[in-house]
Design brief:
Elements: H1 2-31, E1 45-51, H2 58-66, E2 73-79, H3 86-91, E3 98-101, H4 108-118, E4 123-126, E5 132-133, H5 137-147, E6 151-161, E7 167-170, H6 185-195, E8 205-208, H7 209-215, H8 220-223, H9 227-236, E9 240-252, H10 258-263, H11 271-281, H12 290-313, H13 317-325, H14 329-332, H15 340-353, H16 360-370
Parallel strand pairs: 1-2, 1-4, 2-3, 6-9
Antiparallel strand pairs: 4-8, 5-9, 6-7, 6-8
Helix pairs in contact: 6-12, 12-13, 12-15, 12-16, 13-15
Length: 387
């Protein structure tokens, strides 16, 4: 009887909390000028597609987007001053798409900002020109935002495909963000600290247009290809966000896309840590669990070890020694969110290698193991599973 009463009280408390969250979210949407969007008929969805030299995959991506089951979409293709056949492919679609051509290269999030400014829809989806979208992705994402007026944005899961379109894996959400319900800021913040941004998939994002007007555009000049992470944190701090558990698009990897180019032989600290540290300093630390903070520092140590390895590959042995000297073993081993044994072995191996003349065979082995183009959509290889 006592247990049943306890469960009933927990259910009541959760219902009250959820109702309060919905009321706060709806109030903020009204403050942002979102009155009348929900329940006002079938809202227009603007799909923004930045593309640079995308002739290889653009047609397949556009066909999947134009084949959506949702009845009201406008497709805005932003040609980032491409020099291949991209412009001709876009032109072949006639008035089925609206297109804009940049006079100079703006980058993915500069183009996204321009597309958002040109969009007419109540909802804005930013999809990618090399990915393939299931016919119901727009329909399901709109349905979520219509059901949850307190939510500012929604994402979904994806299947990883290689350059030839073959499935090589799929996203598995961390437990704490499963369930398909709106997620509050502490939940999102802690999940990002524990797992890094492996679950808020930018090419699946749909955001209320007036949320963008409320929080501002992507800060691409400051954060470059990590500007999406900063945007999701900025939104989540004011509005809840959702992640659909369905795998509604296929994310292409291994063909030299921007994420792969960024990771290739990177020697500077990952911008993920700059962004997360700023949000921790701006009130987030009080919301962060000890386990999440330990995972954040373990990821930072992991990043340092991987950067040292890249420096060794590049022949910069002294620089690798300096980076390794800043690695705290206690932080490296402080969380199960990294593969601690393998990471420690790599750390100790590198510590030995930087003290002797560079061994080209070892550098070659490192390169083949971590940087050879395999087409597999893997994250950093020494990071533990998110589940």
């Amino acid at each position: 009887m006592t247990l049943r009463l306890h469960l009933d009280l927990r259910l009541i408390a959760r219902t009250v909390r959820d109702a309060r969250q919905r009321a706060i979210g709806a109030s903020r949407l009204r403050e942002a000028g979102d009155v009348g969007e929900v329940g006002s008929g079938i809202p227009l969805v603007s799909i923004v597609i930045p593309v640079f030299n995308g002739e290889r995959y653009l047609r397949e991506s556009l066909d999947s987007i134009l084949g959506q089951t949702y009845p009201r979409i406008e497709v805005l293709v932003i040609d980032d001053a491409s020099t291949d056949g991209t412009a001709a492919i876009i032109a072949s679609y006639g008035d089925r798409v609206r297109s804009y051509r940049q006079s100079k290269n703006r980058g993915i999030y500069g183009n996204s900002n321009d597309g958002i400014a040109w969009a007419s829809g109540a909802y804005i989806a930013t999809y990618h020109a090399d990915d393939v979208y299931e016919p119901t992705i727009v329909e399901q994402e709109v349905a979520f935002l219509e059901r949850h007026p307190e939510a500012g944005a929604v994402f979904c899961q994806d299947i990883f495909i290689d350059p030839l379109g073959r499935a090589v894996g799929r996203l598995e959400l961390p437990r704490e963000v499963r369930g398909g319900c709106p997620l509050d800021y502490p939940t999102v913040l802690n999940a990002l600290l524990k797992h890094k941004n492996r679950f808020l998939r930018c090419p699946s994002s749909m955001v209320r247009a007036r949320i963008y007007r409320d929080v501002g555009g992507y800060r691409d000049e400051e954060y470059r290809n990590n500007a999406d992470l900063e945007m999701w944190l900025r939104i989540a701090r004011k509005y809840s966000i959702g992640i659909l558990e369905e795998h509604l698009f296929r994310y292409r990897y291994g063909h030299g896309n921007s994420a792969q180019r960024y990771r290739h032989l990177r020697t500077d600290p990952e911008r993920h840590f700059l962004i997360m540290d700023r949000y921790l300093d701006d009130g987030g630390r009080a919301l962060a669990a000890a386990e999440a903070l330990a995972a954040h520092e373990a990821h930072r140590a992991e990043d340092a070890v991987m950067r040292a390895m890249n420096l060794y590959i590049l022949g910069r042995r002294e620089a690798a020694r300096v980076v390794l000297g800043g690695v705290s073993v206690s932080r490296l081993l402080g969380s199960q969110r990294v593969q601690r044994k393998r990471l420690l072995m790599l750390f100790l191996l590198l510590r030995g290698l930087v003290c002797v003349p560079r061994i080209p065979l070892m550098a070659s082995l490192f390169y083949r193991r971590w940087h050879a183009r395999s087409g597999r959509a893997t994250a950093e290889p020494l990071t533990a599973k998110t589940t």
